[in-house]
Amino acid sequence: MEKELILVLSGKGGVGKSTLALGTALALAKNGAKVGVLDADLENPCLAQMTGVSPNDLKLGRMISPFSWNNIQLMGLSFLSEKFQREDMPVLIAEDKKHLTIDQLLDTVSWDVDYLIVDMPPGSGEEVRAFLPKRVTGCIIITSPQQVSEKAVARTIKMCNHYKLPIIGLVQNNLNNIGGNAGKALSEKYHIPLIARIPWDKEIAQAAEQQKPADTKHFQRITEVMAKRELQSCQSLEIS
Amino acid sequence: MPKLRDFLEPALEGISRKLDLGKLFQEYSQGEERTLVLRTRSTRGIGEEFGFYVDTKNWQVGITESYGILEPTVRITVEENLMWLLAARQQNLFSAYFQNLPIDVEGAFVLRDILILDKLLELIHDCLLAEGIDLKAILAPG
Fold it and tell me: To bridge B106 with a disulfide, which of A63, A88, B75, B118 should be the other Cys (CB 3.0-4.6 Å)?
C-alpha cells in the first residue's frame, strides 16, 4: 500500500511532538503496522538521542537504510552523523537547502512502511512547505494545556487551513499539573476533534531520558482514530 | 606552501594498499556505477584544483585534474580552508554542508553521496595519521 504520511505539528516548541510521534508509531507497530518516524527537525533533531540509536551503525547502499528500533524505522539528520548530536554543531543551512534535504530524507531512504510519522519542527517554516507537494494524509496537532501554547497552536491550525493540510485532530499533552485546557478551547473554537489527552506520566518522561520505548496506552486512541479513517471526515474548516 | 595533492596522492595510494576498496565501495554502492568527485578550490590564489574521485564501477579512488574523463555523477567543491577543517576532522563534509560553510554541490544533491565522500576523507585522515603525517598542521593557514 502507499504509505500514509502523517505530520505531527505544533506552533509551540517543547510541547511533546517527538514524544507523540514516537508514541503513536510504537502504538501503530504494536497493532501490526509497518511504521517509520522521520525527524524533520533539521535544526534541533532529537530522535537519535531519545532512542539511543548510533550513526555508527548507518548502512549506505543504493538507498540509505533507516534504523530499526523497537519495530519502527527511524531516520533524520542526527541518525546520519554524530555531529548533529553535539551542542557545538548549530545547523545554519539555508532555507532552500532544507527543502532539498527533506526531499532526500523521504526519497533516498528505503522506507518500507504503511505509516510514516513525521516529527516536525515547531512553527511554520520551510520544513512545512517541503511537505506541501507530497500527499500528506493528515496532521496531528499537539498543544500543552497552557494559554501560551493555545495562541501558537491556533496559528498552526490556520496554517494547515491555509495550505489545505487535513487535520486529524488535536492532542493535549499535560506536561505538568499546572492546569489549563488549551486543547478543549482550541477544539471548540476551530471545530477540530480533541482525540487524546496525554496525562502527566513520569514513565513517559523517563522513557525518553532512558532511551526506552514508552508505554503505548496513552497513544492507542490516536491509532484508533487513524484506523477508523475518521480523518476523512475531519477536514479542516476554512477560517476567515 | 605545500600543495594539497603532494600529501593526498600518496595517502590515497596508501589507502589503496591497505584497504580492500572494492569490498568497501561495493558495500556502499551495491553494484551501482557512480563516480563522485570532491574538488578543492584554493582561496589563496594558488589555483590548485583537483578532485578526489570514487569510481564504483572500477573500484578505484584517486586524484584527477580532468573531469571530462570521469563524468562525475556528483561533484562537490570545497574551499581550501574548509579542507583544513575536514582534514582535522573538526568538521565532516556532511555537517559542514549543514553549517553553510563554503561547499557547493554541482548536480544532484544526494545525502548518500556526501556520506560516501566523507567516509573517504575519514580514511585519508586516518591513513595519514597512521603514517605520522598531521594534515592539520600542514594545511594550517599562514
Answer: B75
- The pLDDT value recorded for residue A203 is 86
Is A56 within 8 Å of chain B by CB?
Answer: no
- Per DSSP, the three-state class of B68 is helix
The answer to whether the Cβ–Cβ distance between A62 and B110 falls below 8 Å is no
Domain around A66: 4-233
Nearest 5°: CA angle at A52, between A49 and A58?
A: 100
Q: Using the predicted structure, report yes or no on whether residue B31 has a pLDDT greater than 70.
A: no
Q: State the Cα–Cα distance between residues A239 and A194, nearest whole angstrom.
A: 18
Which CATH number belongs to the domain containing residue B70 in this structure?
A: 3.30.1050.10
Domain extent for B27: 4-139
Q: Is A97 among the domain residues? A: yes
Instruction: Please report which confidence band the pLDDT of residue B128 belongs to, taking 50, 70 and 90 as the band edges.
Output: confident
In the numeric block, the cell 511537505 is attached to A131
For residue A108, the chain B residues in CB contact (below 8 A) are 110-112
For A203, phi and psi rounded to 5 degrees?
-65, -35
CATH number at residue A17: 3.40.50.300
A238 inside domain: no
Number of domains in chain B: 1
Number of domains within chain A: 1
Grid coordinates given for B130: 597512521
What is the layout of strands, in order, in the sheet containing A4-9? A67-69, A72-76, A35-39, A115-119, A4-9, A138-143, A167-173, A194-198
Q: Check B111 against A83: CB less than 8 A apart.
A: no
Is A147 within the bounds of a domain?
yes
For residues A237 and A93, the model is more confident at A93
In A, which residues are within 8 Å of B118 by CB distance?
Answer: 81
ipTM > 0.95, yes or no = no
